[in-house]
Write a structure and sequence with these properties.
Length: 256
C-alpha cells in the first residue's frame, strides 16, 4: 500500500478519460480525481497539490488553457506537470499551451504508447518515491511504506492512515527539527501554501499520539514548540534548543 501519485484527469469524453486513467495507472500507483469541467479541475487542483494534471483544451466552462493559467498563478504550483490535449494540429494551439504554462501538449487522437511514456517522464519524481526506501527508522520508530504501519520499539505494528503516515514521515525526515503546521500541511498533506486548515494537522497529531505514546496527554516522543512539531527519543525529557518545549513539567500541554 505504497503512496499513490495524485493525478487529475480533466477530460469530458468518458471513454477517453477511462483510457487515460488506465494508462496512468499502468505506469505507477495512481489516485485519480476526475473532472468534467474546467472549474472542477481547478477546484480539485487547489484542494491538494497533484503530481500530474491531464487536461483537455476543450473543457467546458473554463477551458484547459485557462485552468493551466490559473494553476500556474497559484503559489506552490510552479512544478506541477500539466499535460494539455488538443484536437488541433496547428502550431497555434501548441504555442498557446506553452504560453499559459503547460508542461506538455499532445494532439488528439492520441498515440497511447507515447502518452504512457510521457506520463512516466512527468511522474518521474513520484516514481522515485514509489521505488525508493520503504522503511524509515528514527527515534525508536519504524515506518513501513508498503503496509502503512508504525512500529514503536518492539511493540506490534499499528496501522496508519495515509495522512498520518505522511505527517510522521515528514517529522522523521526533519531529524528532530521543528516542522511548522504550514509545512506539514504542504509537505505532508500536499495542501497549497497558506491555504490549509491547521486544525487538520492538530487532529492528525492527536491521533498519532494515541498510536505512538504510552500516555497521549504526557508525550514522550512527539512534542510541540513555538516553531512547530518535532520528534525526540523517548528517553529524553528536555532539549534546550526548544525553549518552548511542551511538557507537563513546564506547563500543561497544548490541547488541540
Amino acid at each position: 500500500m505504497t503512496e499513490a501519485a495524485r493525478v487529475i484527469v480533466g477530460v469530458m469524453d468518458s471513454v477517453l478519460r477511462r483510457r487515460l486513467i488506465a494508462l496512468a495507472s499502468s505506469v505507477t500507483a495512481v489516485e485519480t480525481a476526475e473532472a468534467l469541467t474546467g472549474y472542477d479541475a481547478l477546484a480539485l487542483a487547489l484542494e491538494s497539490i497533484p503530481d500530474l494534471m491531464v487536461l483537455s483544451a476543450q473543457l467546458s466552462g473554463m477551458d484547459g488553457f485557462a485552468v493551466c493559467h490559473n494553476v500556474r498563478a497559484t503559489e506552490g504550483y510552479a512544478d506541477v506537470p500539466i499535460m494539455l490535449l488538443g484536437r488541433s494540429e496547428t502550431s497555434h494551439h501548441k504555442y498557446q499551451a506553452f504560453y499559459v504554462g503547460a508542461t506538455d501538449y499532445m494532439s488528439v487522437p492520441l498515440d497511447y504508447e507515447e502518452f504512457s511514456l510521457r506520463v512516466r517522464v512527468h511522474l518521474r519524481a513520484q516514481i522515485r518515491r514509489f521505488s525508493g526506501p520503504t522503511i524509515l527508522d528514527g527515534f525508536g520508530l519504524r515506518l513501513d511504506a508498503n503496509t502503512l504501519t508504525l512500529t514503536v520499539s518492539d511493540a506490534a505494528p499499528v496501522s496508519l492512515t495515509r495522512s498520518e503516515f505522511a505527517i510522521l514521515r515528514v517529522l522523521l525526515e526533519s531529524a528532530g527539527n521543528p516542522v511548522s503546521t504550514d509545512a506539514l500541511l504542504n509537505k505532508g498533506l500536499r495542501k497549497p501554501a497558506k491555504t490549509g486548515n491547521p486544525q487538520i494537522v492538530h487532529t492528525h497529531i492527536k491521533n498519532l499520539r494515541k498510536k505512538l505514546e504510552p500516555g497521549p496527554n504526557s508525550p514522550r516522543r512527539l512534542f510541540r514548540s513555538s516553531a512547530g512539531y518535532f520528534l525526540q527519543e523517548a528517553s529524553r525529557t528536555f532539549n534546550p534548543e526548544h525553549k518552548d518545549f511542551d511538557t507537563p513539567r513546564n506547563r500543561p500541554f497544548l490541547q488541540e
